[in-house]
Amino acid sequence: MTAKNPTAIKPPAHTPAVTPPAAQAAPATPAAPASPAPTPPTTTSLITATANGSNHGTKVDLQAVYQAVVNGLLTFYQPTDIFQMAAGTYTRDELIAEFQSFVTAAQTTKATNQQWRAAIQTERGLELHVRELRSGVSGITQARFGKNGAQNLQFGFDLPKPRTKSAQTKAVAVEKSRATRTERHTLGSVQKKDIKGNVNVALVVTPGTDGAQTTAAPAAAQPVAAVAPPQVAQVAAPAVANGAAPVAAPVAVPTAGGAVAPAPGVAGH
């Protein structure tokens, strides 16, 4: 039997290899936020025409000016371009956003202005309607309380103001009235009585079966022509023969109608 050696050393047990810890992954760097896409230019035209402040352009002109700046930035610059200005540092898209804010405000003003104009038209129509109603109420209150009644003041109706004229104003008015009547040849009722028409009337008698019919027809006044005196023919007296008495020559005698009648004792031929 073999004796055990107490000094023998047992080989050490196998120790598993330790794996070193894996290196931790580096934290992911957050991606830069994407720049907002610029709003495409709008072509809506404004109808308002009021300028802002000290500028002298209309809203249409102002919107066109700033919209042109936006179009130029989109055409010739990149989103990463930086603009150093007195107001601060801006990128291209930030500038576009600033300009676009004004364009949007102008469009809002346009919509508000249209609503305001529509409201004005509605107000004017209602005002015309209630104006007639107020006039009717005024007539009713005046009929109840009188034209000068103090109760009308409670309805907001003004009392008629008394008309006062000075003596000088009244005197001037009287003289003006007289001058106007003279220029227009205005006559009163008493003065008109002295003015009468002058018409010559002639009677025309028309015989009929049942009796004579008399018609009065106005005749215009005809001027009376002067009647020339009748001419008297000179007749030579015949010669006296054998001592006979001479015979008187006939003498023409004018009648009332202008005809010449033979002298008495002379027979007409």
Let me know the average pLDDT.
Answer: 73
Tell me the number of strands. Answer: 6
Strand content: 5-15%
**Could you name the ranges where pLDDT drops below 50 across 5 or more consecutive residues?**
5-9, 40-50
| Number of helical regions | 4
Distance between the termini: 237 Å
Q: What is the subunit organization of this protein?
A: single chain
Largest sheet features: 2 strands, antiparallel
Describe this structure in words.
- It is built from 4 helices and 6 strands.
- With 269 residues, the protein is of the alpha+beta class.
- It has a domain of 83 residues.
- The radius of gyration is 66 Å and the shape is elongated.
- The strands form 3 sheets. The chain has a two-stranded antiparallel sheet with strand order 1-2. Strands 3-4 form a two-stranded antiparallel sheet.
- Helix 1 packs antiparallel against helix 2.
- About 6% of the residues have low confidence.
Tag the structure with descriptive keywords.
alpha+beta; two-stranded antiparallel ribbon; two-stranded antiparallel sheet; 269 residues
Task: Give a topology summary.
Elements: H1 59-76, E1 82-85, E2 88-91, H2 92-145, H3 167-184, H4 189-193, E3 200-206, E4 213-219, E5 253-254, E6 260-261
Antiparallel strand pairs: 1-2, 3-4, 5-6
Helix pairs in contact: 1-2
Please give a quick description of this structure.
With 269 residues, the chain is an alpha+beta fold.
